[in-house]
Amino acid sequence: MFKIAVVGTGYVGLVAGTCFAETGNDVTCVDINEEKVKQLSEGKITIFEPGLEVLFRRNLREGRLKFTTALAEAVQPAELIFLALPTPPGEDGSADLKHVLSVAHELGKLIHSYKIIVNKSTVPVGTAEMVRAAIATHAKCEFDVVSNPEFLREGVAVDDFLKPERIVIGSSSARAIEIMKQLYEPFVRQGNPILVMDERSAELTKYAANAMLALKISFMNEISNICDRVGANVDAIRRGIGTDSRIGKQFLYAGIGYGGSCFPKDVKALIKTAEAHGYDFKIMKSVELVNEAQKRILIEKIENHFGGSANVKGKRFALWGLSFKPNTDDIREAPALIIIDELLKRGASIAAYDPEAMDNARKLYEGKVTFVAKDYDALVDADALIIATEWNEFRNPDFNKMRSYLRGKVIFDGRNVYDPHKMKQMGFEYYSIGRPTVD
């Protein structure tokens, strides 16, 4: 059993703290937001993540998981201190380390015995050295700084943490490496590897992984745009290349672009890291440009269908899906937001539904968008339905009910949820991504 402090109770911090407590550790999570700490201490979870709430409440009840606003209270008894702090993109796209370095300076003043400070946040190459220098400015005891990037996918983060495909430990300290291995041993009993490397390689590994996945998404979206022009079917192509073991099946689905808190931010940060070291990362710049354009691809299809931008004015659209992906309430960089903004600019009205993300979306669009209680409510008298997130409940709807509610029997499917031939049989005009329209 280890005594652990987790600084930051955002997405990564809350999942990490809860999962460490689940394996018997004594975990104290710290946040400067007093209201959030109060809610968490009372058993009110502050993010939506499948499977997390049960673990959260159990470990809170058992006393293994605690919350505080006092950094010293969490840090002084802790053997390991995890930094799960935001690293938002600055104006130039580079990662902003002010939160990480500010806490590092405070830690230097607070620690009086050997500690391991673990960077769990996604940070640029060289951050471990900066954190070490910030702590050393004040500290009078031994400590180690470790890079331990997270690889959590929103919607399946609990499984990703409890059953990781790999653990990456970036450290040059044998003492810290051994303790980190002991900490993670319960999570890798099925034989998945713990990869030990230097700090800089660990930091770059996280960016490289997300950049590669973003590259696959943007590549398939480019292929889908070619499909639209030549009459090919991106689903057939996906199967044709996904069965090649060198390529693999994952992240080959065409759509309206990636969003969320990781891919957009990390692609920008990796480009800036390359620039800072004199390298022009052309591939990733293209990935970013393709993704931004892809978020607007349905707007092009909508304008073409209605005969131009001017004819979109006054139209009413039903929008299914606001989160950037299913099984999360996260709307950061969500393609749905671009679609909403572009339609509002053109004078259209929107009725939106999402199983989890509407509260977050309301903060941005209160008074501008109608938010409905049920999915079918959005369809009433709408000229078209737009699907922006592939929630499972959208996959097998009552098409007869949909047809009776919609004024215009038109569907713009940004996630290729439905079969074009079935949509034709059901009497819908159906537009998807990279698949031929059935005449």
Please give a structural write-up.
Helix 1 packs across helix 3 and helix 9 crosses helix 12. The protein contains 17 helices and 14 strands. Strand 7, helix 8 and strand 8 form a beta-alpha-beta unit. It is globular, with a radius of gyration of 24 Å.
Mean pLDDT: 96
Sheet with most strands: 6 strands, parallel
Separation of the first and last Cα atoms: 64 Å
Helix content: 40-55%
DSSP strand count:
14
- Strand arrangement, largest sheet? 3-2-1-4-5-6
- Helix-strand category: alpha/beta
**Uncertain spans, ≥5 residues at pLDDT below 50?**
none
So how many helices? Answer: 17
Give the amount of beta strand, in percent: 5-15%
Rg over C-alpha atoms, rounded to the nearest angstrom: 24 Å
The coarse silhouette is globular
How do you describe this structure in short?
This protein has 439 residues and is of the alpha/beta class. Helices cover 42% and strands 13% of the residues.
Task: Give the secondary structure arrangement, pairings included.
Elements: E1 3-7, H1 11-22, E2 26-30, H2 34-41, H3 52-61, E3 65-68, H4 71-75, E4 80-83, H5 98-110, E5 115-119, H6 127-136, E6 143-147, H7 157-162, E7 167-170, H8 174-184, E8 194-197, H9 199-230, H10 234-242, H11 263-276, H12 282-294, H13 297-306, E9 316-320, H14 335-345, E10 349-353, H15 358-365, E11 370-371, E12 384-387, H16 399-405, E13 410-413, H17 420-425, E14 429-431
Parallel strand pairs: 1-2, 1-4, 2-3, 4-5, 5-6, 7-8, 9-10, 9-12, 10-11, 12-13, 13-14
Helix pairs in contact: 1-3, 5-6, 9-11, 9-12, 11-12
